[in-house]
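User: Please fill in residues for this 147-position structure.
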């Protein structure tokens, strides 16, 4: 649920990768001519108040009462895209994220430096093909597995 919520609010590729329509088609009443460049704005979809309750808030419990997953079957959450050109590295990527996150939580306690509180963290992003934060996240790890 934490990884789904992070992917909703902070998708790695906010506009996915540009796609091109291979034939004329109509989507939701809009005519899309063959050869159009299509950008899917998953950043905006992830913050759409018609879809999400309290869209700006990080609340993993949003996924407690539903079966929305992030493998491209639920169009409200598409961090890996969907369909034939979706991410072929989905399983590897998700496994790596689960593994690294689990290790970071299990092996360390984390503190913010210089008396900062979570509210002081600047989440401003640099929008590009792949999104990064403007300010690097600074944390102090304290190793807690003393074997
Ligand atoms: C958490 C990790 C990852 C995320 C969030 C991610 C996300 C994405 C997204 C959003 C796309 C574009 C899909 C679209 O436009 O519909 C994509 C495409 C792609 N990804 Fe990933 N990816 C991840 C990991 C990986 C890994 C581990 C690999 C390879 C080992 C990989 C290889 C690719 C390739 C080759 C494409 C282009 C597919 C195509 O154009 O047909 N990705 N990825």
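Assistant: Residues filled in for all 147 positions:
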């Amino acid at each position: 649920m934490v990884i789904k919520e992070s992917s909703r609010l902070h998708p790695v590729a906010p506009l996915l990768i540009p796609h091109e329509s291979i034939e004329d088609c109509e989507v939701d009443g809009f005519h899309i001519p063959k050869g159009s460049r299509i950008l899917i704005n998953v950043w905006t979809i992830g913050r759409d108040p018609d879809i999400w309750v309290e869209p700006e808030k990080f609340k993993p419990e949003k996924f407690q009462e539903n079966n929305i997953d992030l493998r491209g079957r639920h169009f409200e959450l598409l961090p890996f895209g969907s369909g034939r050109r979706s991410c072929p590295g989905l399983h590897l990527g998700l496994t790596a994220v689960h593994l690294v996150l689990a290790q970071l939580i299990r092996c360390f306690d984390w503190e913010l430096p210089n008396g900062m509180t979570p509210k002081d963290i600047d989440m401003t992003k640099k929008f590009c093909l792949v999104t990064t934060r403007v300010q690097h996240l600074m944390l102090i790890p304290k190793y807690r597995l003393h074997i």
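For context: The mean pLDDT is 94.
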